[in-house]
Queue: 2 jobs
Job 1
Amino acid sequence: MISLAGRDIIHSWGKFVFTGFGLGLLIGITLSMAGIYRGMVDDARVLLDNSGADLWVVQKNTIGPYAEPSSLYDDTWREIRGMPGVKQVANITYLTMQVAKDGSDVRAMVAGISPGTPGTPGWPPLLVAGRHITRSHYEAVADVATGFKLGDVVRIRRNHYTVVGLTRRMVSSNGDPMIFIPLKDAQEAQFLKDNDAIRQQRRRTAANPAFNRPAVPGLLEAAVATQSVNPFVNAVLVQVASGHNPLTTATSIRRWKNLTVYTRAQMEEILVGKLIATSARQIFMFLVILSIVSSAIVAFIIYTLTQGKIREIAVLKLIGTKNRTIIALIMQQSMALGAIGFVVGKISATLFMAPIFPKYVLLLPLDSVIGFIAVMIICILASIISIRAALKVDPAEAIGG
């Protein structure tokens, strides 16, 4: 049986190709938006995986350290280390900031890691170049997404750090690349005040009558000295010993140390369900809008093509062509347009949009399959208006002229 839809497409191939290309760009953007959401979820999971922790101990009644601020004394880890089921513990600090290098800066999450060896919670699990931090000050390991290279000197607050190692896919839940520095340096950077603020604080302390009483000698000096010391961390990362249930260990820490503890599942729920929930709703709205626009474009093009061959449709009716043949003609054209658009969209999303997008875009095969099915359904629905118009054509128009 001769394909009427195929013959008509060949007859007006230029219009089909250019329309399919434009539709494909919209579909490519739609696939990219879905990939952006997948990338955000993957960033959150990668952050948790790379931390090497089974439990996150944070300030009571907070959902830190990623979703909101959390502050613990840096000696809290000693108390947790002796709890049943605990294999290894380590302090950690997180600070998102602009890191300067050669007159420019990079948005990054600066992580302060405890002294240790690879495998210590909080340490980057894999390096692609260089070595891990071995000194207690002024060394850094950076993610390659920062653009830093081995030997680069970067400035964090007032101190300068030499990049001694490079890692990959170490990112925050927002997709910012991470930079690892020694814990003491990170503690200083997180609460560091400028020189003027320190001098003003010392004047206020000296002017406070409570510090000028003869009965407490040395109190003023002690108060001033504490201005430059930060005894806090954001969280304590805990690895649970083999054979122990993380939930049981978490319950024990909550009960005896009066702190908030999250398991891996709970922390993932915080990051995915709370931290990126608003972004997920925004992306979903964009997907809906793009789907509506794509439907409108397909409907308009197919309707225009149908109106352009009203006389031919009338001739088909006059010679006894069944309605289902005419419906198939229009629907096949609509689906062919959608197939062209999807191929163009998939290629553009994979080769052009995803690589240059500033955030991580994760394109899953399942999303492509769902996207193709959605495009076909949209094209079928968009052809209904043209089908109704074609079925109303009077066969007499083939003779009338």
Job 2
Amino acid sequence: MRFVWLALAVWGTIHPMYYFITWFQENTWDIMAMVDAWHANAATSGLTWDLTIAAVTLTVWVLVETIQSRQWLRLLAIPATYCIGVSCGLPLYLYLRSRPGGQA
């Protein structure tokens, strides 16, 4: 499963970033303009909140398990989640969590 988690983390990095970079190239590199686009209608606002809640939940899970296990490398999933997305952060965390000796 480790290879699956790693492959999903890579895919979860590359695929969304393609769309983000494409959007920025077409609409200037203004992050606030992108945030406005995330709330263009009820559907996009719903998806934005869905991912925000998932990111916060993942962060709490990572923090709790990391503190318990003292496997500090797992904290890399938090910046990956907020800088790239849950599509990268979650499989990255599962990859780091599944490494030999990585269990609490």
